[in-house]
Specification:
Two copies of one chain form a homodimer. By secondary structure, chain A is α+β, with helices and mostly antiparallel strands. Chain A has nine helices and eight strands. In chain A, strands 5-4-3-8-7-6 form a six-stranded antiparallel sheet, with helices on both faces. A two-stranded antiparallel ribbon of chain A has the order 1-2. In chain A, a hairpin with a 2-residue loop joins strand 3 and strand 4. In chain A, helix 5 crosses helix 9 and helix 6 crosses helix 8. Chains A and B meet through helix 1, helix 3, helix 4, helix 5 and strand 4 of A and helix 1, helix 3, helix 4, helix 5 and strand 4 of B. The first copy, chain A, binds a DNA duplex (30 and 30 nucleotides) through helix 3. Chains A, B: It comes from Microbacterium kribbense. Chains A, B: This is IclR family transcriptional regulator.
DNA sequence: ACGTACGATTCCACCCGACGGAAGACAGTG
DNA sequence: CACTGTCTTCCGTCGGGTGGAATCGTACGT
């Protein structure tokens, strides 16, 4: 569609590895399969270089060709993700509890996320067939202060992380979005005290979230479980215990099978 | 544990990109976090090179450090996988139907797989809490001829692919494993005729599988849905309709939201 | 059919980034 | 304290990586 904004597409460092990563970056931000020339442009690499690198990636299986001759990331990347540290084991142990939670809450969305830097990354998410609210997919990212899950993760992060985060510019998505560090610090306080949180109107005006922390065997928070609901919906508080219970189940699943 | 078998660890091509991929390969096959020296050895790279590359990967987010200072793949790999062609959209559209199937079949395992070369890759899999049969995780691979899902995928593949596959050495995992090309060809015939399959004792003696094909909008098979059951269990045939129904639902979900 | 435009591929000579060795910093262990 | 392993920095040399140009392929428009 709009092909004229690849200007600031992250100038790849003049190192060979940097160029490979630049190509990955292109695919990470691209929504569909790309032609080699498109990759070349977006990665700011010469066609020659792109061509050679792409073929190395093809041989290895990092990218694959579509029937129309375009390129996209290959299934081997799936394997890599599965080997990726935190995500894998966590997801595996968490799914049963997430499913139970999801089953109790037909119409809603269930999310499991971990913190990566200043962002919340979705490790798993189940939404019901119709529920089109919240379009996050696995691997998707959101600012920490706008989602219930994110606030859980930030509330339990090192104070150094909290300070740094609150000192950075805080994005607002609605007129209700909390961007005042003082308010957020208060939220964190509350979270650590109650071990759950409710947010409303932060991402879009008519949605809210309920989330709770997942602990590892050493009382450290490794993830957050949360659901997204329509604020029009009755008492959000009614869901709190279900979410907390799911979080507790996952905590238990992680603690027992420690390795 | 056994650190003496890194000999045949895929000599990385003497190209910079090849070295990067060698590192990815190390993590792909490693089960836990690794020290940099371990990566260096397994990838057959000098410490200097490993050190420099690893830091580039760290900066970009491809790998991350554990608390103990070891290295593992970073959460950004999750994002890459989510952007990976076939897997993503397919998985997204399929999950609701898979969940419905899973809900009906408490004790069992539900798998969604696609074909990648001569292997079946699991795109999603749900197992019930206790059911410890079948240890496949997302991104996991299996030979095509041994699983119900794999046979579905192979039965609908180009005949060129079939011929090539059947001409290659066929692994057997139990004394019941079918490794006779003629027998397998017969199976494929049957699959295309009935649009479902039952296998028994192929991977382990006491498990069986039931699977059905998922089509895209152009009558091509893009995935297979299957379940794993204990052969001791009653009539495997009883599950066929449920599996076929789930496959049909996914087919429908893919066709409708074509893009 | 012809011409144009764009993408993919191959070839090549120059050159700069990548490489490995060596040596030093650091931590844990006996 | 010596020893063993890991991680890190520095540097001179060398080879793989690089961009340009030329070729081939294919789809589109006139």
């Amino acid at each position: 569609m709009r092909d004229l904004m690849q200007d600031e597409a992250a100038a790849p460092r003049p190192t060979a590895a940097g160029r490979v990563l630049a190509i990955f970056e292109v695919f990470r931000t691209a929504s569909s399969a790309l032609s080699m020339a498109e990759v070349s442009r977006r990665a700011s690499l010469s066609m020659t270089t792109t061509h050679r690198l792409m073929h190395e990636l093809l041989d290895w299986g990092a990218v694959e060709r579509t029937d129309e001759g375009r390129y996209r990331l290959g299934t081997k990347m799936l394997e890599l993700a599965a080997s990726s540290g935190a995500a894998l084991r966590l997801r595996e142990r968490a799914v049963p509890a997430l499913l139970r939670l999801h089953r109790m809450l037909r119409v809603l969305v269930v999310h499991l996320s971990i913190r990566d830097g200043f962002e919340s990354v979705y490790v798993e998410s189940f939404r019901s067939a119709h529920g089109t609210i919240s379009t996050n997919r696995i691997g998707g990212r959101m600012p920490l202060h706008l989602t219930a899950n994110g606030r859980i993760l930030l509330a339990y992060a090192d104070s150094a992380v909290q300070d740094a985060y609150l000192a950075s510019p805080l994005e607002a998505r609605t007129r209700f979005s909390d961007v005042d560090p003082a308010v957020l610090r208060g939220e964190f306080e509350l979270v650590r005290e109650r071990r759950w949180i409710i947010t409303t109107g932060q991402v879009t005006e008519n949605t809210g979230g309920i989330a709770a922390p997942v602990f590892d065997g050493h009382d450290r928070v490794v993830a957050a479980v949360g659901i997204v609901v329509n604020v029009a919906e009755q008492h959000l508080e009614d869901y709190v215990e279900m979410v907390r219970s799911a979080a507790a189940q996952i905590t238990h699943a992680i603690e027992t099978v420690e390795d």
